[in-house]
């Protein structure tokens, strides 16, 4: 396991990224990160239910990060 501190432009501050030996992100240490859903709380807070569903669909179809954390890949197996 390794940790790295990086700047998050959404949060406006530093977050810690925890990776396994292969470099795959295993955790993001951030007060706005939801580990279960891989979403960013700041990105979701101003959106209603339908907007969040639309953002999630757009992220899955086009690979954007409108709802999900930039430092994690929620759709990897």
Provide a compact summary of the structure:
The chain has 77 residues and is α+β, with helices and mostly antiparallel strands. The protein has helices at residues 41-44, 49-62; strands at 2-8, 13-19, 25-29, 33-34, 39-40.
List the helices and strands and how they pair.
Blueprint: E1 2-8, E2 13-19, E3 25-29, E4 33-34, E5 39-40, H1 41-44, H2 49-62
Antiparallel strand pairs: 1-2, 2-3, 4-5
Protein model, in words:
With 77 residues, this protein is an alpha+beta fold. It has one domain (2-62). 23% of the residues lie in helices and 30% in strands. The protein contains two helices and five strands; from the N terminus they run βββββαα. The chain has helices at residues 41-44, 49-62, and strands at 2-8, 13-19, 25-29, 33-34, 39-40. The strands form two sheets. The protein has a three-stranded antiparallel sheet with strand order 1-2-3, with no helix packed on it. It has a two-stranded antiparallel ribbon with strand order 4-5.
Q: Biggest β-sheet: count, sense, barrel?
A: 3 strands, antiparallel
Query: Which overall shape is indicated by the principal axes computed on the Cα atoms?
Result: globular
Radius of gyration: 13 Å
* Overall pLDDT score: 90
Order of helix and strand elements from N to C terminus: EEEEEHH
Low-confidence parts: none
Strand order across the biggest sheet?
1-2-3
Features of this protein?
single chain; 77 residues; alpha+beta; three-stranded antiparallel beta sheet; two-stranded antiparallel sheet
